[in-house]
Amino acid sequence: MLNYKKLSQLFCILLALFLFISISSKTAQAGSRDRDLFKIKKSVHPIGATYSLKVEISGLGQVKGNRKSGKIKCSREKDGKYAGICDAKINEGKSFVLKAKPSKGYKIIGWSGNCEITPEIQPTKDLNPKKCAVTMNGDKTVSADFVLISPPPPPPLLPPHPLPPSPVSKEIPFGISNPYSQKDLDIKAKLPEVLKDLGLSKDENGVAGFIVDEIARKHTEETATCSDTACSGYDFSEARDLIDLVVGQGKANLWAVIGAPSNYKFTDGKIREDGKTYLPDGQISRQAYKGYLTEMVSFVNSYGKKISGNSDWYITQWNLYNEVNAEYRDTFGSLSDATEAYANFVVDSAEVLRRLSPQSKIVLAGAGSGTDLLDKHGEFYRLVFSKLKQSKLAYEPFDYWESHWFGKINNYKTNTASGGGYGAKDFIQFLKDNGYGDKEFVIRAGGTYSGQDTQERKHLMDNYQSEQQQAEFLIKRFVYNLAQGVKKIPWSTIYERDKYQGETHVNFQYVSLIYDGYPDGVSKKQKCADVDIKGMLPCPDPGMGVKKLSYYSYKKLIEVLKGSDWNNIQIIQEKDGVYVYKFIKNGKPIWAAWNDNATEKQITIFGINSSQANVTKAIPKYKTGKEVLNYNTAFNVESKPVSNGKITITLSDIPVFVEEK
């Protein structure tokens, strides 16, 4: 008999168990859905997410961040293009500061986009904040807004007062190179008189210009007794004559060019193209050269001190040979051998000179006009500089690097005759790029011709150039390049020559400052028609000893600027064909200016501390130097009243000097 009461209890237990299992299953499914939903939400913003930062720039300038900013360093250049890192991916939550740096002539006026300027960043509440803060909680775009700075109002006029005096160098940057031919004794004897008249002789303050000339080794060996390893009994008469004329009589400084070629092989010398002379190569010929140089420098030091009457006298510059790129390449063949040989010559020369003439500057020889710093010339000097660095010397191998710059009237800025070429700043940068940024650049020889020679060997004189054009070139060549950082510039040759190193129709014959009267003798007009002379202008020339306009302009340049602070030449303007420079002499300003345009231009000179100013044309008021009878009245001088510290003048192609009166 069934027990319904117990059966009813069992049914209730089973029903309760079923309901529990069912509810637990649904709860588990709901929890699973919740977990899936959490996973989905987490995938939208997971921990470690990255966002993009984009920097934009209005105007010209730079925005820079730090490591947290993804190394942002974004610039906008003059052409409107962006440079550097302007986009970055940055982790969520990173905070950092961006800094704005305006380009020259611009200022920051604010930021736009997703950045914030806070008191912590800009506590002075500057109207032109340079910083903004960014927090990466999403993709960001930040824009820095730069604008051009308005020209400032003119400074208030100050009462006239002298500027503090500046230090004066004992050597001015003006001189003459290749002053005479050894065979022309008459011209040679006139050198001291020319030095004094030009103002290159030592003044009451001990300040002087310089002469650059060669002391040739092969000439000193002509009387020597030599073996395979050494010489004795050198003839230093050329060095003695040079010191007599320049130092003793001319009272000027001497820049000596050392000649490397020897008449003797010394067992391992390298024969030159002439088939007669040699350059030092192996250890024996190098030691023989050092022996010669030791004797020569000892003689020069002793004789120079005697003639000058100064126990502290010394050669101001020693030049380590002449136009070595072509010379050494032609002699040694391969570029590697050529640069190795010249670097050794520099090392050997500097070793002797630093020991025997420590006050002197050493000049590394350069190349002739048209030196190409990107092609073979640059290649040569890059290797020479590298080899000198590798030598790890205990002494400095050189102080200056030089070049020769001959050109036509419009090429006073560069080292070429026909346009283009390289300027002083290119040579200075080349030194920096090759590890010698502490060395300085000089122009050792240069100039331009007057007249014409249609038979000139390289057709460098097909176009006629007047005396006035030569004088314009002279003033511009010196002033412009001194302002660019050139430390010394001589003019090449004094008197014209009927032959240059045995040749006629050579450009260098006509670069000089004084005529030589060629052709001389009777029937000059008939001689000018001779086939060997025809094409020379002027022919006949004005006469032996007649000074060109360039001579008087050089004298005026030296007179006006001698005593200036050569390390403080200010470039006032170099644009639109107008050039203005400011020198400081004895605490007072002097301006040099000219205009290369076909039409006249007006300029205003500011900062004049006097009631009157003299404006002097730097070229005499005549067509030729022969017309100059009195140097003191040869130049046009205009006295102009100064108003509010300024004057306005009209510029032509003739340079002018502006001086306080």
Please name the fourth-level CATH homologous superfamily of the largest domain.
Glycosidases
Under CATH, the topology of the largest domain can be stated as TIM Barrel
**Largest beta-sheet characterization:** 8 strands, parallel
Structural class of the helix and strand makeup? Answer: alpha/beta
Count of separate structural domains: 3
| Percentage beta strand | 15-25%
- The overall pLDDT average reads 87
Rg (CA only): 38 Å
Give the oligomeric state: single chain
Any guess at the CATH architecture of the largest domain? Alpha-Beta Barrel
Number of helices: 13
> Based on CA inertia axes, which overall geometry fits?
globular
Task: Give the proportion of residues in helices.
Answer: 25-40%
Distance between the termini: 148 Å
Could you name the ranges where pLDDT drops below 50 across 5 or more consecutive residues?
A: 30-45, 153-168
Describe this structure in words.
With 661 residues, this protein is of the alpha/beta class. It folds into three domains: 99 residues, Ubiquitin-like (UB roll); 391 residues, Alpha-Beta Barrel (TIM Barrel), CATH 3.20.20; 91 residues, Golgi alpha-mannosidase II (Immunoglobulin-like, Sandwich), CATH 2.60.40.1180. It is 29% helix and 25% strand. The protein has an eight-stranded parallel sheet with strand order 20-19-18-17-14-11-10-22. Strands 24-25-26-31-28-29 form a six-stranded antiparallel sheet, covered by helices on one side. A five-stranded antiparallel sheet has the order 4-3-2-6-8, with no helix packed on it. The chain starts with a helix and ends with a strand.
